[in-house]
Structures
1.
Amino acid sequence: MSHADDTTPLLKTPLHAAHAALGAKLVPFAGYDMPVQYPTGILTEHNWTRESAGLFDVSHMGQASLIGPDHATTARVLEALVPADILNLKPGQQRYSQLLADDGGILDDLMVARPLDPAQDGTLLLVVNAACKTADYAYIAARLPAGVALVTHEDRALIALQGPKAVDVMARHAPGTADMAFMSVIRTTYDGIPIGISRSGYTGEDGYEISVANGDAEKLWNALLAEPEVKPIGLGARDSLRLEAGLCLYGHDIDTTTSPVEGALTWSIQKRRREEGGFPGAARIQRELKDGPARVRVGLAFDGRAPAREGAEIATKDGAVVGRVTSGGFGPTLGAPMALGYVPTAMSTPGTKLDVIVRGKPLAATIVTTPFVPQRYVRKTTAAKGA
Amino acid sequence: MIIRYSKDHEYVRLDGDVAVVGISSYAQEQLGDVVFVELPEVGKTVAQGKEAAVVESVKAASEVYAPVSGEVVEVNSELEAAPATVNEDPEGKGWFLKLKLSNPAEFDALLSEADYKAFLETL
């Protein structure tokens, strides 16, 4: 992951002034000046998102379209770069995948959606990480055949509304959004503002990610904030929420040195692709699927209250270092420390007792399944609400 | 009781020859919500400027440096179960440890409350 150095001026999202007006603490993140927290603080923001609805500016992320003559053509072009089944995406369906390097290492993770509107047949909507977007676009563009083009949407902002009450807010203002299935996309309006919206997120809660023209972003942000269920949430709580949900952070839990199998993302490689291959690093990934990878990402729970942070060594009870923590912190909803890290596959069974070394001292830890806090996604279309 | 501050944002409140050490209101605000405090063992000797305790917020871990040298005579073990006390009452119930001063001159050289406030203005 590359970060802007001190001499590069920080980029601003279209909501930068709105964050400043709310009293946000702004910090450099992936080259952008982003809100890490608002005056109430990370714990309050975290809990609000779990109980009500949190509003996040994620406009620093990269939005792009891959545009070809028809779905099958565009899907096959993307399938040469990612291991997910894109060909069989239904109109309006979204999927999580990884952009792979030739050795099977992960260049970035991304969301891929097939638009619902038949008029957009042949287009795939991509959302990639802010720190990776320039490199991703170059990588994808260099591998496109004639007739398929990558169009980036620097003219669009991205706003996430996450939490159990997000659906109540959207139901009042955005037609068709309350009945959306998890991981689906539609185009609609919010109080008349045109939006592209997906039912997805990065908190483990039900919620939405909303793409909007830069010129409408502040209007939409303020309209959402005016709802009683909604408060602004910074990147600090976004990190504690995603970690509790067991979701990977690119550049930390997965990177160019990890394959999707090592990263415990096998669930995101559909059966047809596992069998057929045809993506970068397929030989390695198919071998790891068959024989098991040398190491794998796991969740760690702790006996004590001291959090283990990224970089902490994971050791056997005999003191042999066998891996390291890639994300770690205190889970406000969990009420305990939690961490993700890599260990040899032989030691990855839930219940395995290990130590994590923090400030030179071993902390007793246990391998656990993730998420740490149960995800509460809407798994299927909800029944229509009363008139 | 006289209170002094270090430029690392620890305070020392002198009570006879025992110094009560904690982090300033400014420091807890910068840290954010405190979720864990690691305290030294009673009887340990700490040197000025060296790590005496660790405080962790949701975001990150930070060292608490001993603003003065001395022997740890008591720690605030209530912080282990209620770390948020550091945010709620940093310069009162949220104290970290008590030191028996080994060099009282170190205390006198620290910032007065007025000087510390002036120092914060420069940050």
2.
Amino acid sequence: MNKKYILEIEGLNKFFGSFQAVKDLNLKLEEGDIFALLGHNGAGKSTLIKMLLGLVNPSGGKVTIGGIQQDGRNRAIKYKIGYLPERMYFYDNLTAWETIVFYAKLKNLSLARCEEVLKQVGLTEFKGRRVGAFSKGMQQRLGLAQAIIHKPELLILDEPTTGLDPIGIIELKKMIRQWNDSGVTILFSTHNLADAEELADNIGIINKAEMIAIGTQQQLEEQLSLKTKMTIKLACSYPQLWQLLMAKGIGPLEVRMDSILLTCHREEKAKVLKPLMEAGITISDIIIEEPSLDEIYRVLVEKANIKNQEKVNPRNDTVLVGAL
Amino acid sequence: MKISQMITVAEKELLEAIRSRWLITFTIVFALLALLISFFGMSGLGVGGGYQGFNRVTAGLLNLVLYLLPLIALVMGGAAVAGEKESGSLHVLLVHPVSKAEVIVGKFLGLGLALMAAILTGFGGAGIVIALKVGTMSMGDYLTFVILSMVLGLTFLSIALLLSVVTSRRAQAMGLAIFAWFLMVLVYDFLAIGVASMQQIKIVIPLLLTLLLLNPVDMVRVLVILRLGGETTFGPTLAALTRTISSTSGDFLLILVLFLWVVIPLILAVAAFGRRQDY
């Protein structure tokens, strides 16, 4: 079956004067995906998002959304995108209702849809209140309401959890999942790795204007051959355990009084446990630490930085190796 | 450009103007100005209190309005785009199916309507009071003045939107707007005085006419003075100038140029806004 892409980015570049904010970026986002864009502040995430939205013209390359090329002017493409900025600013003197009606009119939508969407984000009882008096969390909800009111195909969220309280974050994640279940593709930028880990199907890591990795967390993990850490707690100590496990080809490992510490690939976990069970060893607890996204991110960014350094200063590296 | 999108933006601007209370504030300012000038205008001459007729009120109000109205319109329009740019609400607006041209024209319509409403209600309300107290003599002059005030407001609103588009912060736009006001309302007059004091009348008149057409404030001033029949009281140069204007169907020329002063900065604002991306 042919995959259907809602977003296609080809060879995207953006220069601000001599500074390159986005470099040769390629990305394809399948329909129904949740994609997290990870990167430090200033890595190029916001510039990329502004180009997707048509607010900034690329210096090179192209962005296609739902089969239409983004040029910043096309009206049809604007109906396909919903956007929530990092910090939502409204017109302080208008009420929540007047605000949502304003955006709905621009999109040629009915008042009934306004009611529906306010209910969806839980703002119905506050609709008569001035937006200027809203808390950050309520503003964010109203922001989400304007972003989804026209049932977009692609929802772009810029740092959606920044500044929200823990309950706000939980509610936001719930809403994101609900919209995704109803078929909306979601792209969100974040520097909070836990959000990406929890929500995203696919992750893209931007470092210094370049997309250095794209894939599921598992794919990235495999690409880096990162291993899972296991701590197996035993009911009592067993002599000759180390020899037994080594004989089965399991390792590297460390055997302590009442526990075994070892690292293995994600899919090898059962393989480790089987010989223990067969030898009649009673296991009291198992603690598994999969490689976290933090680790994947750190390793990828370090690798990319070393690669960049080599590109900039190849000679120095040679000298350094020679000196060593 | 879609009319419906412009009307939606205009409605939003108008609603904000009403909510922020500036509409009511300026309505009161305009009404008070007219009433105070009508009531106290004569007391300076030792005649004591009591309302004056429309002719004197118009002459008295003219200079105040020529100073005040451009400033109000510039400050109001200056914040319109730059303020939204600074706060970030412009991003969200432009992601909606509305073009930049529709945003500018919509803002112009909304703010223009608010400004015209404030002038019409303020001066109109005061006009009714004056008419009841003093009678309706010369009311036509007053009406012309009110209409020209609205046109003046619109020209400066249009200029303000242009300034608002080329700046990226509210404070920057305000600064530029006040500088434009200083140049066009204060400094320009000194230039005109300098030209008018030259000896060769043959050079002075065309030069003065050019200067006149380059500044909407002076055009409105001359149009109101012509209407009031003030050429005899404003010295020989102005008399010569007004004769030139009158003899070449000047009213029409001035009104046409005033109209251009509304339209051209607006077109430039749309063009400049379309090109800018650095927000």
3.
Amino acid sequence: MRTITRRLLLAGAGALVAGGAGITAGELRPISGNAPTIPPPALLGVLATERALIASLQVALTALTSATGDESAALLTAVLNDHVAHRNALQALLAGYQLPSTSSLPASTHTSTSTSTSTSTRASIRRAEQQAATAARAASAASGTAGAALLASIAACEAGHAELLA
Amino acid sequence: MSADAVLTAWQQALATEQAADFGYSALGPKLADPAQEAMARTNQLAHQQLVVDTSAQLDAAGQTPVPPEADYQLPFPVTDAASARQLALRLEEASATAWRYVVAIAASATTSATLPSTSISLNQLRGLAVTALSDSAVRAVSWRRLVTPANPSVPFPGI
């Protein structure tokens, strides 16, 4: 009788390969002297989207009042924290590249919009999460070793956000 | 990374799905809330379908799909609704981990690592694994918001 131990349940984990958020930037940084200067466009696009989502969530949180309750604020804060983690992981992955100036970064899949009600804000953010998840999945498919698994996890997280905001 | 490593990861994902199917059979009767019972049934069906699909794909790749175990010992006693929800979350997190590993291994496969001609391609496998990872993460969120309402999500499902 096999035990559904954590080991079996996590049997697929194996050794984390490059692309996991737990890998340090040093392990992912291209070898000095042969470092490619052009960062993967797929990673840049997702990074731009993460930055835009962070900005939108910060605006939404600022707009929340005590009348809308603490539950919305707690949820949006949790979502925001995830995106900050995404941004940090992507920046670490791109640390070995020469990043283009902010003005020449690929366009984000999300544009910040100001909305007047908590309900419409939540719906707007949900749509943004769905779009971000789709884009991250596509980016994962286009990525090589270093980015594929990280982008897949980011896409999965954003799909989860959409579920929470439904 | 060789084709053998990809096939091994794929088989491990199948084993994880089989364990999830069994786990849901054990936890379902302990759920008192009808909505949670329905969610557990839906989730179990999803894992069962993944078992069917993954087994067929491995078979097409010339592999013998790992068979399910006759019985499994649960990681902790499931005695009430709370422990049932905790097990459900654990099952989904394990599924996410297994499929994320498939993504990572398939992405690491060298250009010389090819799956049998009768199999789906490495890129197709990556796509399926990304979908399975996302689906598990969404199901996990639904359980996690019940188990730990203050922390309903994790930033990197599968890790």
